[in-house]
Design goal:
This protein is an alpha/beta fold. It has a single domain, classed as Rossmann fold (3-Layer(aba) Sandwich), CATH 3.40.50. It is 40% helix and 19% strand. Helix 4 crosses helix 5.
Length: 278
């Protein structure tokens, strides 16, 4: 074997090793994608004790269409019949904390549930399951006593914007607020893993841009200037796809996680709600 042949053989072995490593990485990503995409947080016993003591009537459970028990909160508004806000939280978010944040929405009732596998909710999350649960929550709580079914408002944050957009495309809602939305999880994942064929791997693409084209109600889109989790271009793509009237608020100096702590965050959302009263 000549020197050139030896070099070629060595290169082939190296190339084969690199290919095998790359293939192994693809398989690993495919198998573990649920653990990478969904980041469930356990229930916080301290927060739960606080709610049980000071807002015991807010704690709520509901059964999904497939029998899993979802844990959440439902706060009655002072106006009856009045509007209902349905909230879909972000990844790694425990919605028990949200009760304190929305305490100023006095007229509106408020409902939010931990996704399957999050907090004390049963089951495992998936695109199909979370979409089904979003419809179930709407169908259940829009019929509650004291809720005006013509005044259903939907808020979604980060991961939850996928469920909010899907719900708005399949049920009658008045307005939608999306905080850090995305065109699709597929797009975001591809940006984070440009060296992998995410398009062919992902089982939970959450194609929000597809559903946004069907929603003809007003949208408030809230985007963080320094968002590194959902880069702004994907929020802008979702915004562009939205069929209905829309406005965007860029929160300067804040990132994906700190955006909800920005001054005026909830008052901006409340103002968007109260525009109907003017």
């Amino acid at each position: 074997m000549t020197l050139i042949q030896k070099l070629l053989w060595a290169l082939l072995k190296i190339g084969g090793g690199v290919f095998a490593l790359y293939l192994g990485l693809i398989i690993l990503m495919y198998v573990l994608q649920e653990k990478l995409l969904f980041l469930p947080q356990p229930a916080d016993p301290q927060v739960r004790r606080y709610l049980q003591k000071y807002q015991p009537h807010a704690l709520m459970t509901t059964k999904t269409s497939t029998g899993e028990s979802l844990q959440g909160v439902f706060v009655h508004g002072e106006k009856k019949p009045g509007p209902l806000w349905i909230y879909f939280g972000g990844n790694a978010e425990n919605i028990d904390y949200i009760v304190h944040e929305v305490r100023h929405l006095k007229d509106a009732s408020f409902v939010a549930f931990n996704y399957r596998g999050y907090g004390d909710s049963e089951g495992s999350p998936s695109q199909r399951a979370l979409y089904q649960d979003a419809l179930h929550i709407y169908d259940t709580f829009s019929k509650k006593e004291g809720v005006d079914p013509t005044q259903i408002y939907v808020i979604g944050r980060s991961l939850g914007t996928g469920m909010a957009t899907y719900l708005a495309a399949h049920r009658k809602v008045k307005k939608v607020v999306l905080i850090s939305p995305y065109s699709s999880i597929r797009d975001v994942a591809q940006a984070h893993y440009p060296f992998l064929p995410v398009k062919w791997l992902i089982r939970h693409p959450f194609p929000s841009d597809k559903w946004a084209k069907k929603v003809d109600v007003p949208l408030l889109c809230v985007v963080a200037e320094r968002d590194q989790v959902v880069p702004r271009r994907f929020s802008e793509a979702l915004f562009a796809a939205w069929k209905g009237q829309k406005s965007m608020k860029l929160v300067k100096g804040y990132d994906h996680n700190s955006i909800i702590a920005a001054p005026g965050h909830w008052s901006t959302i409340q103002s968007f709600l109260q525009e109907d009263k003017k």
